[in-house]
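Schema walkthrough. Field components (list of strings):
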Amino acid sequence: MTTYGILIFDGAEELDIVGPWEVFTFSSRRRDRVDTAVLIAQNLDPVKCNQGMRVLPDHTFDDHPPLDVLLVPGGAHSRIEALMADPAVLDWIKRTAAQSDWATSVCTGAFLMHAAGPSRGRRVATERPLEDELEARGDITVVRDARYVVDGNLLSSQGVSAGIDMALWLIGRLHGRDHARDVMSGIQYEPAPPYLADEPL
Amino acid sequence: MTTYGILIFDGAEELDIVGPWEVFTFSSRRRDRVDTAVLIAQNLDPVKCNQGMRVLPDHTFDDHPPLDVLLVPGGAHSRIEALMADPAVLDWIKRTAAQSDWATSVCTGAFLMHAAGPSRGRRVATERPLEDELEARGDITVVRDARYVVDGNLLSSQGVSAGIDMALWLIGRLHGRDHARDVMSGIQYEPAPPYLADEPL
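Field assembly_structure (string):
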């Protein structure tokens, strides 16, 4: 039984959240629903994500089950900056990461993991345009050109869609490769990005 | 200016909705936010998606802007069956598809498109395990082994994650290949599915 907790906040990027959410919950469905995934926010008000989708949190910082996996998404730069100056958020991330088996982030969620402490002295991935900016903050190594980076129990991915690959890797690590492959098959994760070639219309 | 409308309902699959949503909204962001994407439901109550995420609709069937693109997601089989027997839903899909430039579906959304009429006599994609079942309903051709299928202004994709590729194709068709490539770069859509090989742990 694995409990996944995803932090959500105003300005969080929708696919940073829902890519891993779909992987974790579909994984549970293929395991007789023994796992749990929850969305955690500072309070129970609807969260307005970066592109305008409004999502209801399941739990608050003070009232959520113990987590095996913490996931911190990225989002609007202005909101990430604001959260990096919010002691309640940083304290929760630091405390919850320490109590979880895995501390994970997608995209600019890596900035929150750095501000809160868990990624100090570690190797991480983040959104490509902000790799230099994250490294300039000090006491962190940003790995370029890796879709996701595993450093001990710290797991981080590049931008937005990369959270899907990271989450698939994690369920394979937790529950086996065959299970991860079964989930990939279930969500038909056989990507076919368009326009990789230039051909006549 | 393109207006995208995504149908949401209890039991809709989260990534069916949010994959295209992220693509459409990120596309608008790269176009000075001239486009609009909205979530449309039968009423304004929170929608509980198939894996438990609760999302707030932006509009109801009776109160939404004219759409250029309609998207119908898939979801829990029991819910899809129920919607296929709901005249209000079928009538809205039929009417809205007729008034839109593009009628699109992800996964088992293709069953709703068939029940409502827009895909009768056309070629479509759907979730792999249900291809035979959809074709058995008659007056429709299910294309196997195509990530998404374009038949006139009817666009349909395979299961869950395939909606991302379909949406990327559509924004390229609407706003140019270079734009679609820019959006792919922005959401770092360079998929790297894990466990495609078997190597020592």
